[in-house]
Design brief:
Pfam families: HATPase_c_5 (PF14501), SPOB_a (PF14689). By secondary structure, this protein is an alpha+beta fold. The strands form 2 sheets. The chain has a 5-stranded mixed sheet, with helices on one face. The chain has a two-stranded antiparallel sheet with strand order 4-5.
């Protein structure tokens, strides 16, 4: 009976954990064979008993589980390690609890009837807990929120997730003689491990809100840029008579060269303020702003744009795509001093691309994300990730290539006709 009980509890544990992990991590393999192998390996890990006074059992189980996560899932190292700690907190706590009870039943510490009843109650408790657990983790799993986590946030999550494991490890090394205290600490460990999921959810929401605030601030800045341009235009128009008077004076004095120079300067100022790349006000503001930023660094942005005055797209996401792409190109400081931008409307699609040369080596993570070359990595290196998320929210697809020291970001977004 003891062996059967251990196998049943291990199966319940493995089955539910194997269902929960893919809600948070990306499987490396999709074949049926790999699915069977993955489930079997997790079942073996859960079968491995965590025995009081034998710390090796716990450490070996933890090490094997970490290897299991890294073999079968392909997210960033920080994320994989964090979820290794989170899920093993549940596995370790339940394994220790079931091992302790199974040991008592096998030693016939209870009368035969009570021992059988204890075994049944333990199975019922496991089924009840994991039934609630399955509903619970589905409610808090959100890949978009988890995508907002930085490396530092994943490291913090890992440290917090180790707390239940430390409790169980302490119980393994030095189990208290007070049985009530031992059970209370074990259940407390299970509770903490379970509460890690809403904690992750709230951390993700906070990170996402921070990103949204940054995007909204960027939008506000570009609208302010539009307003500032309009004010300058109104100011020039207001002073137009004064300008004409100056030109007339130069002509009256026969100083034609000065009059021509003055006209050229005035024309340049009007041209800079009223340059229209497209009929879309927001896009014009962004392109003018980035063109001015590039010119201060001796760079030129070659712009080819042809879109309608109003696009049925989220303006904050559109702003994120265009502004961040150009910021990245400007910060790359192309050796030929040129950046090429294309923004074209092709029937029901918006085609966008930014191309520039680069000199520094581009570093990438295992998941394909880019590593910033800036010292302040906490506040930088998010541009590409934000662009990808913005394109995904708009229902588009993005492609980034780095061939022959030419960086090209291409996005294609489907436009929906307004009803």
């Amino acid at each position: 009976m003891v062996l059967v009980l251990h196998c049943i509890l291990s199966f319940i544990l493995a089955w539910n954990i194997s269902a929960a992990i893919p809600a948070f991590l990306t499987p490396r393999f999709q074949s049926r064979t790999s699915m069977i192998l993955k489930t079997a390996m997790l079942y073996i890990i859960c079968l491995f008993p965590i025995i009081p006074d034998f710390v090796q059992t716990y450490l070996i189980s933890f090490a094997v589980f970490i290897a299991y996560i890294f073999i079968f899932y392909k997210d960033s190292n920080e994320k994989d390690l964090s979820f290794s700690a989170i899920f093993f907190s549940i596995i370790g706590s339940w394994s220790y609890l079931s091992s302790w009870w199974i040991e008592r039943i096998s030693m016939q510490s209870f009368p035969t009837g009570i021992g059988a009843l204890s075994a049944v109650l333990l199975v019922v408790l496991a089924i009840l807990y994991f039934s609630i657990f399955r509903v619970y983790f589905r409610q808090v799993s959100d890949s978009m929120l988890l995508a907002s986590f930085s490396k530092r946030m994943w490291n913090y999550a890992t440290i917090i997730a180790l707390a239940p494991s430390v409790i169980v490890l302490t119980l393994v090394v030095n189990p208290p003689k007070n049985l009530l205290l031992l059970q209370a600490l074990t259940f407390f460990s299970i509770l903490i491990a379970t509460m890690l999921f809403p904690l992750l959810y709230q951390m993700g929401r906070s990170a996402k809100l921070s990103e949204e605030n940054s995007r909204l601030r960027a939008m506000g800045a570009y609208y302010q840029s539009v307003e500032a341009q309009q004010q300058e235009i109104r100011k020039l128009k207001h002073d137009l008579m004064n300008h004409l008077t100056v030109i007339a004076t130069y002509l009256d004095l026969g100083e034609n060269d000065k009059a021509v120079d003055y006209l050229k300067e005035l024309g340049t100022r009007f041209s800079e303020l009223t340059k229209q790349y497209t009929q879309n006000t927001l896009i014009n503001a962004i392109l003018n702003s980035k063109q001015q930023k590039a010119s201060t660094q001796g760079l030129a942005i070659e712009i080819k744009a042809d879109v309608e005055s109003k696009l049925n797209l989220d303006e904050t996401d559109l702003c994120t795509l265009i502004a961040n792409s150009l910021d990245n190109a400007i910060e790359a400081n192309p050796p030929d001093k040129k950046i090429q931008l294309e923004l074209l409307q092709d029937e029901d699609r918006l085609l966008f691309s930014v191309t520039n040369r680069y000199e520094k080596k581009i570093r990438m993570e295992a998941d394909g994300s880019f590593i910033t070359s800036k010292d302040d990595s906490k506040n930088h290196g998010l541009g590409i990730k934000n662009i990808k998320e913005a394109v995904e929210r708009m229902g588009g697809k993005i492609e980034i290539t780095t061939n022959d020291n030419i960086f090209r970001l291409y996005a294609e977004i489907r436009l929906e006709n307004e009803a």
